[in-house]
Specification:
The structure is a homodimer. By secondary structure, the first copy, chain A, is an alpha+beta fold. Chain A is 36% helix and 30% strand. Chain A is built from five helices and five strands. In chain A, strand 3 and strand 4 form a beta hairpin. In chain A, helix 1 crosses helix 2. The first copy, chain A, is elongated and about 55 Å long. The model of chain A has no long low-confidence stretch (mean pLDDT 96). At the A-B interface, strand 1, helix 4, strand 3, strand 4 and strand 5 of A face helix 1, strand 1, helix 4, strand 3 and strand 4 of B. Chain A binds a DNA duplex through helix 3.
DNA sequence: ACTGAAATCGCTAAAAC
DNA sequence: GTTTTAGCGATTTCAGT
C-alpha cells in the first residue's frame, strides 16, 4: 500500500491526537469528512495504524524509574530463545523487549516506582525468566525524549 | 489525585483502546455514559492521561530496524548536558532518549529503514549532536514486546 | 459528591452523485 | 472526491441517592 501526501498528513495528526474527531481531522488535512473517514478506515484496515492508545504520565502514576536490562542467555538454540520469549511476554512489567544482534542478547525496558519496587520486579518477574546466563541492569535518571510518532514527509 | 477501581479500569481500557466510544467504555466499566465521561475528562485534566495517539506499524512503514545508541559525553557540566539535550529533542528520528545513571551517559533508540538509512541518520542527526565523546550502537533484530500500557490493579 | 436520566447538539457514516 | 441526510453518540442539565 502506498501513501500519498494526504495519507501521511492524516498519520502525522493521528500520531499526536489519536482521539481527534474525524470532522476536525478532515479540516486539518483539507478534505471533506467522508473522504477523510474513508482514508482513515483504509489505514486502519491495512494495519498501518496498528492501534489507538492513551499514553499515561508515568510519574503521576508513581512509576518514576526506567530500567534497562541486558540479558545474555545460556545458549542460542531455538528452544532456549522461544522459552525465554514466551516467558517475557507474560512478564507484565516489561514494557519493551528486543532480540539484539551480536551476542544474541535481549534488551529490556522495565518501569518501576523506586529501587525497592525494582527489586520486587526483579525477584518476581526477571529472575524467573528461563535460560538467563547474565543480566546487566542500567538505571535511567530522567527521560529526555519519549515519542511514539514516526517522522512523516508531508511536503 | 487518587484513583479508585473504576478509574483504573478506565485507564486500563483506554491504554488498549484509545479511541473507544465513551458509551462502550461506560459499558465495559459498568457506569452510565455521563458518569464515565466525567471521570475520563477528570483523568485528562489531571494529566494522568497525557495524550491519545495512534500507534503505527513500523514494518509496514518500512522502518524495520531499531537501533540503540549509548552515548558518552566529553564532560558532565550543565552546559554540556543541556546543549546535548536541546539538540537531541530536535533530532526527529530519535524515538527515545534517557539520561542514564552511572556514567552520565545517554541511551537512545532510533528507528531506521535499513543499515543504509541508519548511516544517513547517523550522519545527519547523531554525528551533529554536541559534546559527544563516544557512541556505542547496538542493533535490534526483532521486537519481542512493545507496550505502552502500564499494568493496572483492577481487583 | 457522585450517580443516572433525559434533552440537546454535533458528529459519524452511509447513500447518492 | 463532495454533498446530503438519517441516526447515533457526546455532552450538558437536572434531579436523586
Amino acid at each position: 500500500m502506498k501513501l500519498d501526501v494526504i495519507d501521511r498528513r492524516i498519520l502525522q495528526v493521528l500520531q499526536k491526537e489519536g482521539r481527534i474527531a474525524n470532522a476536525d481531522l478532515a479540516d486539518k488535512v483539507g478534505l471533506s469528512a467522508s473522504a477523510c473517514l474513508r482514508r482513515m478506515r483504509a489505514l486502519e484496515e491495512s494495519g498501518i495504524i496498528a492501534s489507538y492508545v492513551a499514553l499515561l504520565d508515568q510519574t503521576k502514576l508513581g512509576r518514576r524509574m526506567d530500567v534497562f536490562v541486558e540479558i545474555s542467555l545460556v545458549g542460542q538454540s531455538n528452544e532456549i530463545l522461544e522459552a525465554f520469549e514466551k516467558a517475557v511476554v507474560r512478564a507484565s512489567e516489561v514494557m519493551d523487549c528486543f532480540l539484539m544482534a551480536g551476542d544474541a542478547d535481549y534488551m529490556l525496558r522495565v518501569t518501576a516506582a523506586d529501587p525497592l519496587d525494582f527489586e520486587r520486579i526483579h525477584r518476581e518477574q526477571l529472575a524467573r525468566l528461563p535460560g538467563v546466563l547474565r543480566m546487566k541492569t542500567s538505571f535511567a535518571i530522567r527521560p529526555i525524549v519519549r515519542t511514539t510518532a514516526f517522522p512523516m514527509d508531508t511536503k
